Amino acid sequence: MALRFIGIDPDTGQGNCPTVWVDEAKGEIVIQGWKVDDPATHAQVLKTGPLPDHESVVRIPARMALILKEAADAIRPGT
């Protein structure tokens, strides 16, 4: 699997921070974010359904919206 780097949180100093890649072969976005481990957030997430053991919830800042859009556009050209 080859990931293509899309962007990193512009306010982080470039180290160990929210980052976005795309896996063009699978048509997927790969996200590194801050681990969500506070009970209140987990309770809100679980209101929409269970969180399977093989999945996780992460946070990324809203300032990365354009980076996420770029990733979405990279796996769905022309949309």
What does this structure look like?
- Strands 1-2-3 form a 3-stranded antiparallel beta sheet, covered by helices on one side.
- The radius of gyration is 14 Å and the shape is globular.
- By secondary structure, it is an alpha+beta fold.
- The protein has helices at 39-46, 65-75; strands at 4-8, 19-23, 28-32, 34-35, 58-59.
Low-confidence stretches: none
How many structural domains can be distinguished in the coordinates? 1
Radius of gyration from the alpha-carbon trace, in angstroms:
14 Å
| Largest sheet report | 3 strands, antiparallel
Shape: globular
Share in helix: 10-25%
Structural class: alpha+beta
Furnish the topology, listing elements before pairings.
Blueprint: E1 4-8, E2 19-23, E3 28-32, E4 34-35, H1 39-46, E5 58-59, H2 65-75
Antiparallel strand pairs: 1-2, 2-3, 4-5
Short structural description:
By secondary structure, this protein is α+β, with helices and mostly antiparallel strands. The protein is built from two helices and five strands; from the N terminus they run E-E-E-E-H-E-H. The longest helix is centred in the C-terminal third of the chain and has 11 residues, at 65-75.
List keywords for this structure.
79 residues; alpha+beta; three-stranded antiparallel beta sheet; 24% strand
